[in-house]
Amino acid sequence: MTLALPYIVIHKGREKSLARKHPWLFASAVAKVSSEPIPPGSTVAVRSAEGICLGYGAYNAKSQIRVRMWTFSAEEMVDADFVRNRVKRAVSLRSTLPSSRSGNSQRLIFSESDGLPGVILDRFGSHLVLQLTTAGAFHWRDVIIQAVIAETGCASLEERSDSDTNHLEGLDDWKGLRFGSLPTDGTEVQEHGLLFKVRSENSQKTGFYLDQRDNRLLTRSIASGKRVLDCFCFTGGFAVNALKGGATHVTLVDSSADALAAASENMAANGFMEDQVTSYCGNAFELLRRERDANRQYDLVILDPPKFAPTTSQVEKAARAYKDINMQGIKCLAPGGLLMTYSCSGGVSLPLFQKIVADAALDAGKELQIIRYLHQAEDHPIHLAFPESEYLKGLLCQAID
Ligand code: SAH
Q1: 195, 254, 345, best to mutate for ligand 1 pocket (most atoms within 8 Å of CB)
Q2: Half-sphere exposure (Cβ direction) of 332: Cα atoms closer than 13 Å
Q3: What is the DSSP letter of 380?
């Protein structure tokens, strides 16, 4: 097996991260490639400078992450059974988590955390949405699809491999139905007793942000009697929960008219009235300034912006954007008001994010205390050997002046 495979040799010293089971090998770590060209996604053996086999991974000459490891064992064979077993393991682990009982939707596969770099699988009822983001995942596409269908017994499977990182990996966008038939009018997601319509085919990402499930529930528990501003609301996940928790009014802000239309549908599906909701379609940065100038105040401000820093090189620019939006949000807080603020940028660590929010509070001239640290939901597990899998961080803060 080893002999038949192409291999790469890494520079001396670069085996350290592999010994810690970190699954990425960057281009700079590669000293030699057995034979070029190696088709993208092919399995290669990874050898130390001394010629010892350290495991196998998926090779991609077009990516800065040259190899993504499948296994750190020289004995394990990376074949269809291997991939099927990884899919099976992930799906079976999810069935033990509380999120398997809190509704009908779950992230079933979360990429490196499940030993399947570049494979994301979300379940919305009996409809599944698969997203492949690496050459290795593309290479095993058919096996993955068959395994997913077999392990989940889903009614339909849609692929949304049109991620905004495809150009960094040299991958072509692909989206469409892979199995069954598309639900005619979207899928109904139930989450902690609330209903949300998910239309994955034209939506953002897989169609619904499951990573915020617990934080949406938290919102429900703190919203009673509050005027809520839900910025970057998408399909209204936080706002619907706030109303369920007794908020007096919610204001929704998103730049996507489609998202706002879906949000108002979700409001209605859960029995909330139009007069409890104000929607603004536009740029949240401008809108917050306008709210501030009009002296409008809110008791709970939620800021859940998109990834401002998709890669680490954009962190500085992202930090400025996070600071600006948080400063504007803080200025709109009523005395004693709550700020729930997030960053889903992998490149922005929690300490950095906390510092950014601290700077924003200083500039806004307000004193805030953190009352809760917030994270991605448990079906987006963080692999201990791969800290990059922790991407969503949030702070719940209270204004004390
Ligand atoms: N809170 C949501 C997820 C937010 S995703 C939930 O729980 O489901 C980020 C949202 O920000 C998207 O809906 C996107 O349309 C919106 N968006 C992106 N840039 C924006 C901007 N400058 N102003 C307002 N909304 C924006």
Answers
A1: 254
A2: 32
A3: S
Q: Can you give the residue range of the structural domain that contains 325?
A: 209-399
Ligand 1 atom nearest residue 234's Cα = 13
Confidence (pTM): 0.95
CA torsion through residues 231, 235, 237, 241, sign? positive
203, 255, 283, best to mutate for ligand 1 pocket (most atoms within 8 Å of CB): 255
Instruction: Judge if 93 and 61 occupy the same domain.
Output: no
Convert the pLDDT of each residue in 156-176 to its tens digit.
999 999 998 999 999 999 999
* Residue 259 in contact with ligand 1 by CB distance below 6 A: yes
- Supply the pLDDT for residue 223: 98
Q: Domain check: are 245 and 390 in the same one?
A: yes
**Residue 99 and residue 46 share a domain:** no
pLDDT at 1 exceeding the cut of 50: no
Minimal CA–CA distance to 63: which of 139, 163, 134?
134
pLDDT band at 204 (very low <50, low <70, confident <90, very high): low
195 is a domain residue: no
Same domain, 123 and 170: yes
Integer-rounded Cα radius of gyration of the chain: 23
CA-proximal residue: ligand 1, atom 13 (nearest): 234
Residues 21 and 97 in one domain: no
Ligand 1 contact, 176 CB (< 6 A): no
Residue minimizing CA distance to atom 3 of ligand 1: 234
Instruction: State which of 15, 48, 71 marks the end of a domain.
Output: 71
Can you tell me the distance from the alpha carbon of 252 to that of 277, in angstroms, rounded to the nearest whole number? 7
**201 pLDDT tier (thresholds 50, 70, 90):** low
CATH code (residue 22): 2.30.130.10
How many angstroms separate the CA atoms of 68 and 70, rounded? 7
Q: Is the pLDDT of residue 155 over 80?
A: yes
Please give the distance, rounded to the nearest whole angstrom, from the Cα atom of residue 336 to the centre of ligand 1. 26
Q: Examine the residue annotation and report whether 344 is marked as an active-site residue of this protein.
A: yes
Percent of residues, the chain, with pLDDT higher than 90: 91
Task: Tell whether ligand 1 has an atom less than 6 A from the beta carbon of residue 377.
Answer: no
Which atom of ligand 1 is found nearest the CA of 302?
Answer: 1
- Element housing 354 (H / E): helix 350-364
Atom 12 of ligand 1: nearest residue by CA position: 234
pLDDT tens digits, one per residue of 215-257: 999 999 999 999 999 999 999 999 999 999 999 999 999 999 9
Q: Are 62 and 170 in contact (CB under 8 A)?
A: yes
